[in-house]
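Risk register update: the risk of archive-format incompatibility is retired. Evidence:
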Amino acid sequence: LDVEIDYEGANLLASRKWDWLGGEATLRAYLDYQSIDMNPVAGAIVSTGDVDFQHRLMPMGRHEWIWGLGVRYQNAEARARQTTLRFDPEVTQLKTVSAFAQDEITLVPKQWRLSLGARFEARNESTPEWQPSARLMWTPTDRDSLWAHWSRAVRTPSIGERTTDFIIGTQQVSVPPFGTFPFTVISRANPDLKPENLR
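Archived output:
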């Protein structure tokens, strides 16, 4: 099967920094458009809008705080042109709201540093998730550092994993003494797929 792939995309990024409440605030806005046409198999258009705010506070004693908020909207439209492929639904809308806070703590100046933080993320198709993290760094010299890190991360299933069915291939399988039969391997979508947790 000869497949012609036609891809086009565009994005726009705007960013602004300013002093606020004794610290530095950053606001970023991002728009992205991607279109891919795999003729004669399928075509898809994905549009994304993202707004992200971060605020780094002025150091307070041994503590350096940074916190932020984010909102993302994604619209994906996919169309199959062959019976070996199916999208259900063909239009998917993802909305994500997130927030995070992190504290960089100087335990011993220029030697020991502790970082504690957590991220909260809520999507319209899954339950809200907390993702905490902790990192301890030791810097015995100006050139060497040793650190230990623990975190909980979450991977949300992709749109393809939740919406796409496709036939991987068909071949003849011999089953003596019953004869030869066609054997088809199909990848099925799972709309109820849960997020994966990593510690």
